[in-house]
Write a structure and sequence with these properties.
There is one protein chain. The protein has 14 helices and no strands. By secondary structure, it is an all-alpha fold. The N and C termini lie far apart (46 Å).
């Protein structure tokens, strides 16, 4: 659009694109997509569903597993791969899928705040402020874990008395929409994808300064978002707040939209108000936890 309107020449537009950033994001998308096509996400979701847990216990397991995956892989792809399978897991257990789907979206957003590769904005902030990868994890780890506990508590409390699926929706497993049958589990492809992801993650831990310094350039967005980021905790503040805010409304995160669309394809309606009943308190609580923790860290510095 900028080129068409004459605001930028073709050369200027190309110069505004930073290839290493796109390559890094694409690489993680490829690894995550391989795990999806290898059936890993389907397998792990069904494994969760078979655990002999009460509904609140299953919700807790789902929240922490999804958060862990989202800290390394694209939370959007995880939401896309897990949501339809999660619906079938819930219906097979005669459970109401709605609280579990909302937990999937919320946990994917909160979990992605745990690392500097959890989402694109964290990559941008990490490079711009030259944040150490492990150092950021130490700052974000506790508020993310506490945020996940609070997320589980809010959803479990609101779902009390509504865990069972309505009779009309308690369909037997196998009700995928046409063309959406999950891929079979391929152990080799899954192990290969997990191995590559582990190697990349270890490189970020022990070769972080080099890698992050070559990830993102000072694009114009940095000038708008980070002009006053001079404090030593400015990076964690921006990364945590921008990510946790994604739970507030449906449009705050692509993961939210993906999950709601997946529910609609299974004739499960999740409206703005129903999402907000979870999203608003989760956002306020997790943001307050992060703010309190960083305030304590600033006072101790």
């Amino acid at each position: 659009a900028l080129v068409t309107t004459g605001a930028l020449s073709l050369e200027e537009a190309w110069g505004a694109i930073h290839a290493p950033t796109l390559i890094l994001l694409f690489a993680f998308m490829v690894i995550s997509a391989q795990l999806r096509l290898g059936g890993f996400y389907t397998w792990i979701t069904w494994r969760l569903g078979r655990l002999p847990l009460t509904p609140p216990g299953l919700l807790a397991a789902l929240v922490f597993v999804i958060a862990a995956l989202s800290a390394v892989f694209s939370n959007d792809i995880i939401a896309l791969a897990v949501a339809p399978v999660l619906v079938e897991v819930c219906l097979a257990r005669r459970l109401n899928p709605v609280p579990f789907l909302l937990a999937l979206a919320a946990a994917a957003n909160v979990g992605s705040a745990a690392t500097l590769i959890g989402n694109p904005q964290n990559i941008l902030i990490g490079e711009t402020l030259k944040l150490p990868f492990l150092g950021y994890m130490r700052e974000a780890g506790l508020p993310v874990i506490l945020g996940l506990v609070v997320t589980w508590a809010i959803i479990a409390w609101q779902a009390r008395g509504r865990w069972e699926a309505a009779p009309a929706t308690s369909a037997p497993v196998g009700g995928h929409p046409p063309g959406e049958a999950p891929p079979p589990f391929d152990r080799w492809q899954s192990v290969k994808g997990l191995t590559v992801a582990t190697v990349v993650f270890v490189l970020f831990l022990f070769a972080a300064a080099f890698l992050l310094s070559n990830v993102v350039s000072n694009v114009p967005a940095v000038l708008l978002l980070l002009p006053a980021a001079t404090s030593e905790i400015a990076g964690p503040v921006l990364a945590l707040s921008s990510t946790l805010a994604g739970n507030l409304l449906v449009v705050g995160s692509i993961a939210n939209i993906i999950v709601i669309n997946a529910a609609q394809r299974h004739a499960i309606a999740i409206g703005w108000k129903e999402h907000a009943r979870i999203g608003v308190p989760v956002t306020l609580a997790t943001t307050a936890i992060a703010a309190g923790w960083l305030w304590l860290r600033l006072g101790a510095a």
